[in-house]
Design brief:
- The model has no long low-confidence stretch (mean pLDDT 93).
- Strand 3 and strand 4 form a beta hairpin.
- It is built from 2 helices and 8 strands.
- The strands form 2 sheets. A 4-stranded mixed β-sheet has the order 1-4-3-2, with helices on one face. It has a 4-stranded mixed β-sheet with strand order 5-8-7-6, with helices on one face.
- The chain has one domain: 2,3-Dihydroxybiphenyl 1,2-Dioxygenase, domain 1 (Roll), CATH 3.10.180.10.
- The protein is an alpha/beta fold and 128 residues long.
- The longest helix has 13 residues.
- It is globular and about 45 Å long.
């Protein structure tokens, strides 16, 4: 069975994006693994790549994917909420406060990074 290995977002201001993601990911022990040739950075945990913020390969400006979102799973609702709060503290914009959604077992929160990329921190109370 295949699984998602990592995700990337583009940025037009890589220095600000790296500072944002360095601080955000450090709050949950996800650390920089290496700097990317585009001027961006790749992050991971336990040596495994998880996420990258990059300059687009084609050299054109980075744009936000309409309908695109990256979700990060956390062990508890509190951890998901704390990650959301840290993102907002670092300048992200709120796209949906932490909470259970529609009677489901999903505790979700949404934010947009400094470039407008949408991310979600969530906890799934029951695995389906």
């Amino acid at each position: 069975m295949s699984q998602l290995a990592y995700a990337t977002v583009g940025s037009n201001c890589l220095d600000a994006a790296k500072a944002f993601y360095d601080a955000l990911f450090a709050s949950v022990d996800i650390l920089p693994l290496f700097d990317h040739p585009s001027g961006g950075r790749v992050y991971g945990k336990d040596g495994a790549i998880m996420f990258g913020v990059l300059g687009p390969f084609n050299g054109k400006p980075a744009t936000v994917g309409n309908g695109a979102m990256i979700a990060l799973h956390f062990d508890t609702p509190g951890d998901a909420a704390a990650f959301h709060a840290k993102a907002l503290e670092l300048g992200a914009s709120d796209e949906g406060a932490p909470g259970f959604r529609g009677g489901s077992p999903f505790y979700m929160s949404y934010f947009r990074d400094l470039d407008g990329n949408k991310l979600c921190s969530f906890h799934q109370a029951q695995r389906v």
